[in-house]
Amino acid sequence: MVQYAVTLKDGDWTVFGDGAPLAAGLSRSAAIQMAKDLAFEAEERGEAVELLIQGYYGNMSRKMTGVAGD
User: Fold this and answer.
1) Is 27 exposed, middle or buried (0-12, 13-18, 19+ CB in 10 A)?
2) Are 53 and 61 in contact, with CB atoms under 8 Å apart?
């Protein structure tokens, strides 16, 4: 399973992949689009994906897709 997250860090929106920062200094919408694109590519490879997106007030939404090996 791969995990992508969009969080507000040090005043900037950052995209993380499996805990490592992939891109920083993005707008929230650009960060979400990048994470969704990465998740789609992982799903195309047959990987299960967990997508976490932080809201403006700190709440997190979570979406899980597929299970590797299905």
Assistant:
1) exposed
2) yes
Per residue in 2-46, pLDDT (tens digit) is: 999 999 978 899 999 999 999 999 999 999 999 999 999 999 999
- Tell me, yes or no, if the pTM score tops 0.70: yes
Beta bridge partners, 5, equal: 16, 52
Q: Write the DSSP symbol of residue 10.
A: T
Provide the residue type at 14 as one letter.
T
Q: Which of 56, 62, 52 is nearest to 11 (CA)?
A: 56
Length of the chain: 70
State the Cα–Cα distance between residues 68 and 30, nearest whole angstrom. 27
Residue type, 23: A
